[in-house]
Design brief:
By secondary structure, the protein is α+β, with helices and mostly antiparallel strands. Helices cover 61% and strands 11% of the residues. It has 2 domains: 2-201, Arp2/3 complex 21 kDa subunit ARPC3; 211-404, Alpha-Beta Plaits, CATH 3.30.70. A hairpin with a 2-residue loop joins strand 4 and strand 5 (282-288).
Length: 409
């Protein structure tokens, strides 16, 4: 007797667990009443399919047919609100009416009411109540009982039936609470994973990509450019005289300038370009499919937009300028290291020429002939060149944005 009870119960729970994790693999579970309509519809269909699957594995115990096909409908409403629960409940209801005729009217009505009702009993509606999850659970037990009464399957005069039915209602409540807990755990895990992913790839101060992500993405974009025989440009952007801002107004003002500059750079690029904070007050951009001529135009657009912007910080209205250096694969650079080195050389030359300008690597070639080394080509001292190059090899430490650069560039 116990085996006939626990084996199908285990099968039903296993189906729900497997379905939840499969659904989470297809689309990380993050459903709430404010989700987009497309997301809600996707999950409504998913929970409808789970309801049909569970319905096929119902079993009989003490003359009572036990199945949990209304639990997914309740879960859909609990997480997705009335819209998701209503769609899922309506589909289950239509299934009952189509295959069982009016004999399934009770469960069809229960599915619709439970889907809509659970949508109003969710953690976003009852933030201050700890036991809101029990409302649809107990309501579901009542509606299932009413559905059985309507369909004439409730055997009032059979004592054994009462015992089996009581067990069914308890299981219905427990399975619903179990599914809600399982999916909430998945949501928490997904949120933690997404936060860790953001922290690993984004600069905490500016919201742009960080040093590590820039290098990894540059390698991937370069491999793609080689396969497609396409162009690839790298641009370095550096704030002119940024140390004066820190020294005059303080590092908090400098940090806010960095944040606002990041927005200017982001909006100056195409949607598929990659902008990153490379270190201190220096930023970098990857421009796929961009040739040398257009690279100068992009750099000039960034320089002009920065020059025209008023940086409003704590009642101050500041103006800054930037210097930009660019180079292009495969016209001049042949690999990742050369892209970074040549862009840095062009940026260094822009600083030497008076700042607030854009310099392309090919302009250094035209000016100096064949370039053999960074310091000699740019016309600067070995110590200056080596200092900039060495300073770029490590990412900025968190929380030291404005203070991170002590150079007077």
């Amino acid at each position: 007797m116990l085996r006939e009870f626990f084996t199908p119960l285990f099968v039903n729970i296993s189906i729900m667990i497997g379905f939840a994790y499969t659904l989470n693999r297809l689309k990380p579970f993050n459903l709430h009443p404010n989700s987009g309509q497309g997301v809600k519809f996707f999950y409504a269909l998913g929970f409808f399919l789970l309801s049909l699957l569970v319905y096929q594995f119902g079993f009989t115990y003490y003359q009572v047919t036990i199945d949990f096909h209304l639990v997914p409908v309740m879960v859909a409403g609990f997480f997705g609100g009335p819209f998701t629960g209503g769609i899922s409940g309506s589909l289950v209801g239509m299934y009952h009416l189509f295959f069982r005729g009016w004999g399934g009217a009770g469960h069809a009505l229960a599915a619709l009411v439970l889907g809509l009702g659970s949508g109003f009993c969710n953690p976003w509606t009852f933030r201050r109540h700890r036991f809101y999850v029990l409302v649809p659970a107990l309501g579901g037990a009542v509606l299932v009982t009413l559905a059985d009464l309507i369909e004439g399957t409730f055997r009032i005069n059979q004592p054994r039936f009462w015992g089996g039915y009581f067990i069914f209602l308890i299981l219905h409540v427990l399975v619903y609470i179990f599914m809600v807990g399982l999916l909430r755990d998945l949501m928490v895990l997904n949120e933690h994973y997404q936060r860790l992913e953001r922290e690993a790839t984004l600069d905490g101060m500016t919201g742009l990509f960080n040093f590590r992500y820039f290098n990894n993405t540059l390698r991937e974009f370069l491999e793609a450019a080689v396969r497609r025989a396409d162009k690839l440009t790298v641009a370095f952007i550096d704030i002119d005289h940024f140390k004066k801002i820190n020294d005059t107004y303080g590092h908090q003002v400098g940090d806010e300038v960095l944040r606002q500059l990041a927005e200017v750079i982001r909006h100056s690029l195409r949607p598929f370009d990659v902008a990153a904070r490379y270190g201190g007050e220096e930023f970098a951009a990857i421009l796929p499919g961009c040739n040398a001529e257009n690279a100068l135009k992009v750099g000039e657009r960034i320089r002009r937009n920065v020059e025209q912007k008023i940086f409003a910080v704590d009642g101050l209205q500041l103006r800054i300028t930037v210097s930009v250096g660019v180079t292009t694969f495969p016209d001049y650079a042949q690999n990742e290291e050369e892209l970074i080195r040549q862009s840095d050389m062009a940026l260094y030359r822009a600083k030497q020429m008076g700042r607030n300008r854009v310099v392309a690597y090919f302009q250094l070639l035209e000016e100096n002939g064949e370039v053999g080394g960074r310091a000699g080509d740019a016309g600067g001292s070995d110590s200056d060149a080596g200092g900039r190059e060495e300073g770029k090899q490590s990412p900025p430490s968190s929380g030291t944005g404005a203070a991170g650069s002590e150079s007077g560039s």
